[in-house]
Amino acid sequence: MAKGKLSEEVKTFLVQSLACFDTPSIVVEAVRKEYGETITRQSVEGYDPTKKAGSNLAERWKLLFEETRKTFLEDTAAIAISHRAVRLRALQRMADKAETQGNMVLAASLMKQAAEEVGNAYTNRRELTGKDGKDLPVPVSPVTIFQLPDNGRS
C-alpha cells in the first residue's frame, strides 16, 4: 500500500511502534489486526528515520519518533514486567501450573528462578563497601621469588 493511502492514525501507530523497537514484521501484523489494513514490511521501514528507507520522512514524523523513543527508553515503569513483584507473580502462576500438571522439573526450575529474582541475581548491583560500610579489604598477593637453576653454568 502506498504511503499516501494510510490514515494519519495508522501513520502515527507505525511511527510510535517503530520507536518502541517493534520490528516491521510485528508492526505489519499489528496494523492488520488493529486497522484491517494490509501493508508491506518495506513500506513500514519508510516510517523509521533510523533506516535508509525512512531518511526522507517528514519532520513531524521524525519528531514524533524521537519523542516516543526517548519516552520509551526513560519510562520503564510503564512496562509491567520491569517490576519485581509482577515477575514474581507470573513465576508463581507458572510454577503452580507446572506442579499441577506434574512437571516437577519445570516447577523446580521456576522456583530457582524466583529465588534468584528475590536474591538480586538479576540485577547489576555490586557491593562496593565492606561490612558496616567500611572499606573492602585489599587482597594481598604474596610475591614468591624463585631461584632459577644455573644449569651447570658458573
Beta fraction of the residues? under 5%
Number of strands: 0
Q: What does the oligomeric state look like here?
A: single chain
Q: Helicity level, as a percent range?
A: 40-55%
Give the termini distance in whole angstroms.
90 Å
How would a crystallographer describe the biggest sheet?
none
Q: Which regions contain 5 or more consecutive residues with pLDDT less than 50?
A: none
What value does the Rg take, in angstroms? 28 Å
Mean pLDDT: 85
Q: Which class do the helix and strand fractions yield?
A: mainly alpha
Shape: extended
Order of helices and strands: HHHHHH
The number of helical segments is 6
Can you describe this structure?
This protein is mainly α and 154 residues long. The protein has six helices and no strands. It has helices at residues 8-19, 24-35, 41-45, 59-74, 84-100, 104-118. Helix 1 (8-19) crosses helix 4 (59-74) and helix 5 (84-100) packs antiparallel against helix 6. The model has no long low-confidence stretch (mean pLDDT 85).
Summarize the structure.
The chain is mainly alpha-helical and 154 residues long. The protein contains six helices and no strands.
Key features?
154 residues, mainly alpha, 6 helices, extended
